[in-house]
Amino acid sequence: MRKTCLNMVHELARADKRIVFVGSDLGAGTLDAMREELPDQFFMEGIAEQNLIGVAAGLALEGYIPYVNTIATFLTRRCLEQIAIDLCLHKLPVRLIGNGGGLVYAPLGPTHTTLEDVALMSALPNMGVCAVTDAEEMRRMMPQTVDWTGPLYIRLAKGGDPVVSSSEDDFQLGSALERRRGGDVLILAYGVMVERALQVAEMLEQSHNLSATVLNVHTIKPLDSASILNHARGKRLVIAMEEHGPHGGLSAAVALLLAQSDMLGGVEAPRFRAFAAPDAYAEGYGSQNQQIARMELDAESITQRIRTML
Amino acid sequence: MPLNPQIARPVFDTPPLDARSRALRKLVLRALDKGGRGHPGSAMSLMEIVRVLYDDVLAFRAHEPNWDARDRCILSKGHGCLALYAILADKGFFPAEELDGFCKIDSRLGGHPEHGPCPGVEASTGALGHGLSIGAGMALAAKMAGKSHRVFVMLGDGEINEGSVWEAALFAAKHKLDNLTAIVDYNKLQSYAPVAQVQELEPLADKWTAFGFAARQCDGHDVAALRENLTALPFTAGQPSVLIAHTVKGKGIPEAEDNPKWHHKSYLKEEEMRVLYAALDG
């Protein structure tokens, strides 16, 4: 996914001189082809994230569209004030590409994992937040990021993730994507959790004869409230699942949406459950999948937890 | 009142403030008076710097603030905005009457300057350590587009405690941004106490030089000295420039000079305002 994302920046920059790439100190070889072909649009500026954001703001004020890339946790935590003021307050078209959102860097420990990036970015006015399912979906999304209004945070998964998106989908940044239709349960997910949401839906159907709709909420902010409410109506159960802490992510956004919709009142009201990471730093290391399993966010665990509710 | 003996500064033969410098300071007092609050000390130290920039150095069109060929000027020490507002009003970016609305709910003139609402403000500042990076980005953009306008960033001395300023300095030198000039309002007094006590900066010129800037120093209240330096840019071709302007916080108001109590004031009393006005009339 990361390679696809960056290659797309190269491709988009070839066609649009406003687009520049700004990296910190990424791995050797990163975007070599772009650096060679478009040296005037390629910048690698060192481990100085606060400055990268400010420089990107200055470039954007002059008409450029910078794509800034580094590890998600350094991009979001390290320079939060620069993002808030230089980008969000000025409503500038800067794209933040965060490598390894969630538990991707689990083996590297809690300094490198981020289970709060979506919350931090979502809390900022004017910021858009998105996390697609896989590399193919990334390919469909990136052209739509160019003319997005205001700043946009793009959370990347690990890379090499299974492709579960479909080229037949009408992917629209800002609009939740229906991946599966069923009448009993609504499951909402983003990023690599969409694959698990589809698995949960299959298991619920096989073991409980429950049919589930799965919505790929790749754009977490602005939330596609209309679509979510539309699909939630008449369901027995609404589930949000995310590779993120319980505060400020999709779970919290959907809970607020449902609570304010009055949909949760009455005997016919759907029940709502969020499956998110605990409000804690990950213990131990291991792989992303091992950590996801330890946090009971794998498809089997979530299905089991849903069963106990029914 | 003698200047604070705890503060070491070079000795300059500073000429007395002329009528224009006093008139601009009166505009600061006007906003301060009506707004009932502000950072007078920080504005007074900056006044001759903005005066010379807007009188003698910058290309701009007050009635076309987004004119593409203008020089960009960022007040990174946003709390000095009363000085910026005074010169912008003087130049006609907005009517001087708007100074009366300083910090009011419907005003365009906030306690820190905002890009968008206020014409002539290139970037919203107030959180310190942001302006030089933004300015460096603008200067790089100008180079990329082959445009000849220049970028100026006014920094506070306390502000350059921020590490981001030095990240930006590394970047500007790497890219040989000789269309970028930083001006340090070196009044030697932070909010709490003298800079030398809170976080010593000396040897300051050496630091900038080591970071790849061409550095000069001058008396920041001597209009002729400022003009001489700021019309000789870049100081060295292929390098960003920095002018360290030795100033006095609260300059022009003896009660406020070198007095940390005048860094920020709120609930200003009539009696206090009378003292301020009297100092400039005298």
Report a brief summary of the structure.
Chain A has 310 residues and is of the alpha/beta class.
How does this structure look, described?
The complex is a heterodimer of chains A (310) and B (282). Chain A is of the alpha/beta class. Chain A contains 12 helices and 12 strands. Chain A has 2 domains: 1-156, Thiamin diphosphate (ThDP)-binding fold, Pyr/PP domains (Rossmann fold); 177-308, Rossmann fold, CATH 3.40.50.920. In chain A, the strands form 2 sheets. Chain A has a 7-stranded mixed β-sheet, with helices on both faces. The longest helix of chain A is centred in the middle third of the chain and has 16 residues, at 193-208. Chain A is globular. The model of chain A has no long low-confidence stretch (mean pLDDT 96). Chain B is an alpha/beta fold and 282 residues long. Chain B has helices at residues 19-35, 40-57, 81-91, 131-144, 163-174, 195-198, 204-210, 223-230, 270-281; strands at residues 37-38, 72-75, 151-156, 180-186, 214-219, 241-246, 265-266. Chain B starts with 18 loop residues before the first helix and ends with a helix. Chain A binds chain B through residues 40, 45-46, 48, 50-51, 53-64, 81-82, 85-86, 89-90, and chain B through 115-116, 122-124, 126-127, 129-130, 132-142, 144-145, 163-164, 167-168, 170-171, 174.
Question: From N to C, what is the helix and strand string of chain A?
Answer: HEHEHEHHEHEHEEEHEEHEHEHH
Low-confidence stretches of chain A: none
Number of strands of chain B: 7
What sort of overall outline of chain A do the alpha carbons produce when their principal axes are compared?
globular
The biggest beta sheet of chain B, please?
Answer: 5 strands, parallel
Derived from helix and strand composition plus strand pairing, the structural class of chain B reads alpha/beta
Strand content of chain A: 15-25%
Largest interface: A-B, 24 and 29 residues
**What is the radius of gyration of chain A computed over CA atoms, rounded to a whole number of angstroms?**
19 Å
CATH class of chain B: Alpha Beta
**Low-pLDDT sequence parts of chain B:** none
CATH architecture of chain B: 3-Layer(aba) Sandwich
Tell me the overall shape of chain B.
Answer: globular
Helix proportion of chain A: 25-40%
Helix-strand topology string of chain B: HEHEHHEHEHHEHEEH
Task: Determine the CATH topology of the largest domain in chain A.
Answer: Rossmann fold
First and last CA, distance of chain B: 14 Å
Query: Biggest β-sheet of chain A: count, sense, barrel?
Result: 7 strands, mixed
Domain Transketolase N-terminal (chain B): 22-276
Protein name (chain B): Putative transketolase
Pfam families (chain B): Transketolase_N
InterPro entries (chain B): THDP-binding (IPR029061), Transketolase_N (IPR005474)
